[in-house]
Structure formats: structure tokens, C-alpha cells
Amino acid sequence: MRIDAHHHLWTLARGDYGWLTSDLAPIYRDFHVADLAPLLTAAGIGGTILVQAAPTEAETGFLLEIAKAADIVRGVIGWTDFDSGDAADRIEALAANELLVGLRPMVQDIPDDDWLVKPDLVELLAVMARHGLVFDALVLPRHLPRLVQVVDRHPDLQFVLDHCAKPRLASRDIAVWKDRIADLAERPNIVCKLSGLVTEAAPDWQVSDLREAVDHVYGCFGPKRLMWGSDWPVVNLAGGYERWLAAAGTLLTDLSPDQKADVFGRNAARVYLGRRGRQTR
Length: 281
Description:
By secondary structure, the protein is of the alpha/beta class. It has helices at 33-43, 57-69, 87-95, 120-130, 144-153, 175-184, 207-221, 241-251, 257-273; strands spanning 2-7, 45-51, 73-78, 100-103, 134-137, 159-161, 190-194, 226-228. The chain is globular, with a radius of gyration of 17 Å. It starts with a strand and ends in an 8-residue tail after the last helix.
């Protein structure tokens, strides 16, 4: 089954999407399963991973209700307040819902760059590992050295690097990013999500503008530790679902059918669904 490993859904009236303003006109509206369904059908995608977009547990509950009602949504990456005094209990409670497959603190928006390596996080990530939850790392290139420390500290926890850590494709300033990605990829308990690249590229991006970064993450992680995601509807800021999917297909055209099946579905099923024993619904 082909799986879109990263997309969002939101309702603006909820009021917890602080980053989503009218300046982002193409995505400043409600997006529901019904809006996504035709794109999935056209792409031959049979399952998705729905990812949080607001730093609230209320939104996580909202997404879990969507997943409960929509068979196409196979799992949810949620959010909890890792800085709260009862964070361990919160994680335990969320893990009781089988549709929750992981958690994603929005590290890119946290002012303290050392947040990832704070001692209080050790116990909480151990709780996640115990419940088979995945840690989705929404980080920028500057966070990668800290992420390496965390991944090393928790060899029993599965990590997923969102959006390839957002390399600066528009400025082509990716040399440091490449070195840090290569270092991170040496750790076997992290996989990379091939998503979010077109919104880091120049507005008039072409497939060739993405090739160096895609070739690099493929060379570092290989076909067994790379998974494709649309980042819809955010991808609508940079060409849309179909254009990004077509670009990814072109960039990975030399892969064997078996390798493509890994990147476009099997890896997401193994990493997100297999750890919680729910390959199918």
C-alpha cells in the first residue's frame, strides 16, 4: 500500500494555529479529509499519517477523532506539553489511543536551541519508547548536532527526521546541512521523511533544484530509511500535491520497484504502524 507519511488537516475556527495567518493565503482556510481524498485517489495512495500542526493537546484530540472516522488515516502524530510537570502521565494517557503513533514537539519554534538535550526529556522519551511511539523531529539544520545526542541517548526509541531538517535550498547554502545529515544518518534508529523540500526551495523551483538534497538524503539513509510525505496542504504554497509527488518520482526514478515501494509506503507502515501492531485497520 502506498502511504502519504505526512499531511495536515485543520479548521481555522479552532484558534490554536498561531503560525497560520492570512499572509499564507493559499492555505488560510479549512482543510478536511474530503479535500484530500481526490488527491490520494489520483496518486493511488491507500493510507496516510496525519500530523499535528498546533502545539495543543486539544488539536491532537481533534485529529484522533478525524482518524477514528476516516479509514484512510492510519495513524496520528500528536503533540503534548513536554515541559509540563505531568508530561509522563500525559504521554501515557495519549498512548492508550491506538491511533496515536507518535509525538512531535515543534522544536523549530522553541526559543531554546538546547531544549532537545535538557535532562528532563530523558524520562519522557523513555516513556515514548516503552509504548512504541515515534518521536517526529521537526528541526532546522542548526538543531542537528543536538538531535544526534538525543538519538544516541535513546537507542530504543524510533526517530523520524521531518522535512529532511529543512535545508536552505533557496540560497543553496547546504554544505553544513549535508555534513550534519551524514553524521545523523549513521544512527540506525532514525529515518528521514522526504517531505517539505519544495517550500524550502525558491518560488520558481525546478526538479533540478531539489536533486542535490534528495540525492544526499537517499545516499545517507538508503531506501529502507526514507519515506515520502506530501506535507499537504502546506505544499500548496509551493506548487501543490501533484507537482511535488511528480518531482519525487522523477528524482527517484532510478530506484527499483521494490525500493520505490519502500520509500512510498512500506517504510511508513513499518515505522509508524508496525511498532504499535496495527499494519491494517
